[in-house]
Amino acid sequence: MTAELRPPSAAACPGCIAAPAQPIEETPKDARLALSLPGIHCQACISTVERELNATPGVHSARVNLTLKRAMVEADPEIRAADLIPVLERAGYEAHELDAGTLQATQTDRTGRDLLMRLAVAGFASMNVMLLSVSVWSGATDATRDMFHWISAAITLPAIAFSAKPFFVNAWSALRVGRLNMDVPIVLAIVLALVTSMWETSLSGEHAYFDAALTLTFFLLAGRYLDYRTRAVARSAAEELSALEVPRAWRLTEDGEEEVAVAELRIGDLIRVRPGGRMPVDGEITAGRSELDRSLLTGETVPVFAEPGVPVSAGEVNLTGPLTIRATAVGEDTSLHRMADLVAIAESGRSRYTSLADSAAKLYAPGVHILSALSFVGWYLYTWDVRTALNIAAAVLIITCPCALGLAVPAVTTAASGRLFRKGMLIKHATALERLAEVDTVVFDKTGTLTAGTPELTNLGDHTRADLEIALALAEASSHPLSLALSRAAREAGIKPATLGDLHEVPGYGTEAIWRGRTVRLGRAAWVGATQGAQTAAWLSVGGAEARPFVFSDALRPGAAAAVAALQKAGKEVLLISGDTTAAVEALAGRLGISRWVAEALPEDKAARIAQLSEQGRKVLMVGDGLNDTAALAAAHVSISPASALDAARVASDIVLLGQDLTPIAEACDVARRATRRIRENFRIATVYNIIAVPLAVAGFATPLIAALAMSSSSITVSLNALRLR
């Protein structure tokens, strides 16, 4: 080691000693990539995805979040999401790139953990205060009793301040705008119990009710936590849509191609989109031929031919050949951003729905407050004793505290959600069951919802073995959806590919090769000299012989026919609204017995149709899975999306269908009706309880402690009634 490289002897800290004397070049930062994985559903999926990604050269670490269905990857700077997506697709998992910068702006939800922590504090404090109360009940008197009361106060006051904070915040938010909610009487009951207890303790009274205040807080927090656990916390669908946009693009300049952030693109820029890439902006094709997959945006199942002059929209996928597009709309002006705006508007409309619990609070809270105030005034005028009047007023507030009403909804929702989860449905939104019970109209999307979204070969038996061998060899040279379906069907039938020469793909048209000296082609009708009919088909041409079609149809999703029939039998009107072609939509509607259908609908058309039905007084259930469905899903009275849907569609929906089978949808409507009936029964139970208990409290026969025990009994009764749904 040379003397020049030694650290200075005057360095006083290890950090300075360890620092090199000569500056070094800054190492490029690792790339942080985010991938959406809509198809993962279990621990095995997590292990497989992480193993495949970590085995990829250049990847340093990969972690999968099953709840968010997302993978976060740290890799070398030159690694791109486009390099990792094929790796996962070969392993059998659908993957899409997300903009990590957009996702970092979304705050992680901590509601569940916060509620659980407050619940634990309330439970621990109530147990300790109850032990002290037992000592008082056992005969502790005078100074000993006072000491136990002051210790209880020291435990209770900070515990209530922390644990009951959600109730205080919600009550203040309501009072500040001049309205009442269920938390207002809850807060008054807690505060009055504390005030009464402190009053009694300061006067060396025999009774304090700190345990009643803590028990009340504990029960109510348990109800809130139950409510939270019944659903996945929905993130903003608009943010998810933004995260699905392509974060980078290849811009053409005089010096060649340069990779830039999409935010840097301007109208008029020339952009290169490689096969398998997603369009970063709206634009027009200036060079190249290919085919576009528009299924996520429009619902069209058949790829669209793309050539110079054809307009493209952000989010469409380029399938077969490189394209050069000229940007005509960028940033917030793109079609994908306009769709995000539609979703945001629709979500704000749904938030105006008033839950049954809030409706009950509007009637319940004023009555409770008036009754407690009248009790205080009446007993004060009767006894001229503030202490007695305050005790009775506190007992009235506690015994009428809406703990049973607060549990009425979450207890039923938990039982109903558990039953539906076992059937393959996950309830996300707090009021989804209440809204589902009101549904009288069901709107289905077609591609990916009623159908599997993948083509299925229907006329394999109409072709000779030689044709099938040639077609298989040609199909395996392409990643076109029809080619993949043909390859799958032929392989399952035991067909072996023919030996071909000069095999190559012609972007936008099909595949071509030489077989025994003759030219063979598989692709578009016009390319092989055939006439395209109404059916979806790939055409095979062998030499100069007449071209023969391989016909495809969109396979029905399991349970689609049964679900439509069950909903119609239950008296609900069923509609089919799709962005697919008129012929495809009409054919599917005929297969399923749906009399009302709309084809070639744009995303805004779907949302407008839902809004029109809502204006007519219809309660609409929307079932969809694509980006083109997100605005309609958010605008509907209630919505369902399959687990196979993209993140944006799942986030915009209230209920997620975990399996492939659509049959549980009809049962969910029935369970929702019965759940709503149970909720109303629980409200009636709480009302009858109050009719019996309130006169006793007003007459002075119930101390605040007895009132707390009575309140707990009503809560248990409500919970047992809810369990009948299971």
From TrEMBL:
UniProt-annotated location(s): Cell membrane
Domain HMA: 31-96
Keyword Membrane listed: yes
Topological type in the membrane: Multi-pass membrane protein
Keywords: ATP-binding, Cell membrane, Ion transport, Magnesium, Membrane, Metal-binding, Nucleotide-binding, Phosphoprotein, Translocase, Transmembrane, Transmembrane helix, Transport
Residue ranges crossing the lipid bilayer per the database entry: 115-136, 148-168, 180-201, 207-226, 363-382, 388-416, 687-711
Matches recorded under InterPro entries: ATPase_P-typ_cyto_dom_N, ATPase_P-typ_P_site, ATPase_P-typ_TM_dom_sf, ATPase_P-typ_transduc_dom_A_sf, ATPase_P-type_domA, HAD-like_sf, HAD_sf, Heavy-metal-associated_CS
Highest taxon of the lineage: Bacteria
Main location: membrane
Any Pfam family the entry gives: E1-E2_ATPase
Similarity field: Belongs to the cation transport ATPase (P-type) (TC 3.A.3) family. Type IB subfamily.
PANTHER family cross-referenced by the UniProt entry: ATP7, ISOFORM B, CATION-TRANSPORTING P-TYPE ATPASE-RELATED
Name of the protein this chain belongs to: Heavy metal translocating P-type ATPase
